Amino acid sequence: MREWTREEKYRYLKDPQELLELYGKISKSAYRQTYHIQAVTGLMNDPNGFVWYENQWHLFYQWCPWGAVHGLKHWYHIVSKDLVTWKNLGVCLLPDQNDGYDNKGVYSGSAMPIGDKMYLYYTGNHRDADWTRKAYTCLARLGRGGWPEKYPLPLFGSNPDYTEHQRDPKIICLPGSDRYYMIIGAQTKDKRGCALIYSSEDLQHGWTFAGELKVPGFENFGDMWECPSIERLGGRDVLLFCPQHLTIPGRGGSQNHNGYILGNMDWETLTFKPDGQFHVLDFGFDSYAAACANNLQEPDKAILIAWMGVPDLSYPTDEEDWSGCLTLPRELTVRKRRLIQQPLPELKKLRDERLSTQADEQGVFALPKGAEIEVEVRPGPFSLSLFTKADGSGGLTISCDEAQKEITVDRGRMETRFNISEGEERKRPLEEGLYHLRIFIDSSSVEIFVNDGEAVFTSRVFPTAEEHFCHVEGDAFVRMWTMKRAVKEEFLI
């Protein structure tokens, strides 16, 4: 594994041509995705600023151009008319090259359109000469010309009553209210995760600290909360956040999680009253920093997209100087006391050729590089192994214990194993057993939607040239389609 110096990680990008050779090398990788958003070079992580503006969807993501390293972060900008096919617009927010408030990184945040302008809220990562960190909540304005104008001063600095870990502002506009709120992930001085609330009557000015978000029963839940958000769905409030550095039953050795709590938010007292426990948002191995579109005008649902990765972990493409992609956008609704995640209906437009799933005598059929697979599972023993060898051995296995009504995803039999200390198996109870799977595979990922969104398993996978087969055991009806390319692969900085 390459060791990066501080100077290499925090090198400023002065000319796009500096990345041309790196792009040429990366574009030859066998693991470049065909219909998932991925970085043009280097590392991508959190999705930012997800919003509808000027008749199209805008999405930004954290981008470190030099390689698979969490160094100097930028916001890279992409747009879509339908949340299926995407167009790269290039880098939008760059760190200040002098001693500005974001001199060591434009960190995560959100966006809000008002009139013909879009406002971008982000964490400015500042480092002094002695490398002391200071966090600032900064603002930029994006006009119709597409180029941002940074405000000369931050909206506010870090709160001195908390540690320097204060980041990821999510702007919230309540229907019928004349106030805006901003929720920020933070850490108390005794190392407990929390969220801070700021408020203002003006998007651009007058932001004041309103207080710490109170969540009864979750006062000691991880040592840092990242990417917090409060969404209103079907008459319920949902607190989405990423608690760090704690273990959760059924999550193996994983220390960083993305999840949610259903409840009711009282904005007068800044209290989120939970109606139940913390639920994992995605039961797979690689999903974090989920973000919901900020101005969706439909009260019963939200649209979510997440980073297909986890902090503090490495991936096989790190050796190729790139890492990271985003999940497919998902439609969120509330059913009973859980969030339901389903693929957007528009994703069916990516279906190309219907392929045969007629298995040989060993129950094996070939897999293309990118595909959508739909499986209707009938009662009885069942397992489906993706990315197997030609004889059906190995692969990532999805199986169901009918007696226990529990689904298991195990990627431990693939040739390329990674992040083994996190555990190679994930489980999820199913109230009604397993009856349906909708699976999206790409060159280096798999997203498994169970029982019409009852559960989702998202994972990175890196199959070898021999691991492009599928093995089915049990009574099931399988359909499969190849997928069209959704993001044009081009060198655009």
The CATH class label of the largest domain is Mainly Beta
Q: What are the low-pLDDT stretches, counting only 5+ consecutive residues below 50? A: none
Strand content: over 45%
Q: Kindly, what is the distance between the CA atoms of the first and last residues, rounded to a whole number of angstroms?
A: 27 Å
What is the number of independent domains?
A: 2
CATH topology of the largest domain: Tachylectin-2, Chain A
**Second-tier CATH architecture of the largest domain:** 5 Propeller
> Which homologous superfamily in CATH is the superfamily of the largest domain?
Glycosyl hydrolase domain, family 43
Question: Mind explaining what this structure looks like?
Answer:
This protein is mainly beta. It has 2 helices and 33 strands. It has helices at 6-9, 20-26, and strands spanning 42-53, 56-64, 74-80, 87-93, 106-114, 117-127, 133-142, 148-150, 156-157, 162-173, 180-188, 193-200, 208-212, 225-233, 236-243, 259-266, 271-274, 279-280, 288-292, 302-307, 322-323, 330-335, 338-343, 351-355, 364-366, 371-388, 395-401, 406-413, 425-429, 436-442, 445-450, 455-460, 469-483. The longest helix is centred in the N-terminal third of the chain and has 7 residues, at 20-26. The radius of gyration is 22 Å and the shape is globular. The model has no long low-confidence stretch (mean pLDDT 94). The strands form 6 sheets. Strands 24, 25, 26, 27, 28, 29, 30, 31, 32 and 33 form a 10-stranded antiparallel sheet that branches. It has a 5-stranded mixed sheet with strand order 4-3-2-1-21, with no helix packed on it. The chain has 2 domains: 6-343, Glycosyl hydrolase domain, family 43 (Tachylectin-2, Chain A); 346-483, Jelly Rolls (Sandwich). A hairpin with a 6-residue loop joins strand 3 (74-80) and strand 4.
